[in-house]
Amino acid sequence: MADSNRVTHLGVIMDGNRRWARQHMLSSVMRGHEKGMDTFMDICTWCQDEGIPYLSVYAFSTENWERSREEVSALFKLMESFFTKEIGTCLSRDIRVRVVGDLSRLDPESRETVRKAEEMTAHCRNLTVFIALSYGGRDEIVRAVRRYAEDLLSEKENLSELTEDKLASYLDTAGFPDIDLVIRTGGNRRLSNFFPWQTTYSEIWFTDTLWPDFSREELREILDYYRQIKINKGK
Predict the structure, then answer these.
(1) CA distances from 212 to 3, 128, 216 (A)
(2) CB-based contacts of 49: which residues, under 8 Å, 6+ apart?
């Protein structure tokens, strides 16, 4: 019988918001994103109930910048609304918010909103949520290599001492455990540049359920599956 596995770090690719809005014949795809935001807050609670201390979600990829200017603008307004209106909920639930990605592409007001949210929740410990915003996995690795190269040039680092752990310390998630399990909703069967370094040994679960319809029951089904499999890292 397989050993029972515990998910320490859950990754979620929250896909299907726009299709959900179209299926429900709503006037704007933003209604799907709004419903998806509610589901995001729900899964934070579900993770806490299941004793999962770390959650990483894909909120906005580097590729999403290619969407229409109107949709990108509306998405960032929704995200800013979350960082201002829901931060009190995060505090009351002891949820720490960390935002990872190339934040240099955000406007100054958005960056300040993100900074305040991180600062206000820095002391929270029950759940740490990584929100991947303007994020791409390859971009993260390139940015990590650039930072490491800068430290080489300033002689803070020695190339002969470079190891996987050393390079990992330059990633956006430095100091936190790798992702054990990735869930992607919406029917697509790919990781789409989602934390490639941190998901090297992740178990992956794809579901046709659109993100706004994802439920506590489906999460429990997936976690039950994970508890029964045998994890052989490196084999």
Answers:
(1) 32, 22, 12
(2) none
Q: Give the C-alpha separation, 229 to 54, whole Å.
A: 20
Task: Give phi and psi for 82, each to the nearest 5.
Answer: -60, -50
DSSP class per residue in 65-92: GGS-HHHHHHHHHHHHHHHHHSHHHHHH
Q: What is the mean pLDDT of residues 214-219?
A: 98
All domains of the chain, ordered by start, with CATH? 9-136+177-228 (3.40.1180.10)
Percent of the chain with pLDDT over 90: 91
Pairing of strands 9-13, 181-184: parallel
d(CA 198, CA 176): 10
158 part of the active site: no
Q: Which amino acid is at 126?
A: N
**pTM of this structure:** 0.94
User: Is a pLDDT exceeding 60 seen at residue 207?
Assistant: yes
Angle, in degrees to the nearest 10, between helices 69-85 and 30-50: 40
* Predicted local distance difference test score (pLDDT) of residue 25: 96
Q: How far apart are CA 101 and CA 141, in angstroms?
A: 11
Could you tell me the two tokens for 185?
A: 């909703």
pLDDT at residue 235 tops 60: no
Q: Which of 3, 17, 49, 64 is catalytic?
A: 64
188 is catalytic: no
Alpha helices in 154-190 (DSSP H): 164-168
Can you tell me the mean pLDDT for 149-158? 97
Q: Which two tokens stand for residue 232?
A: 């052989």
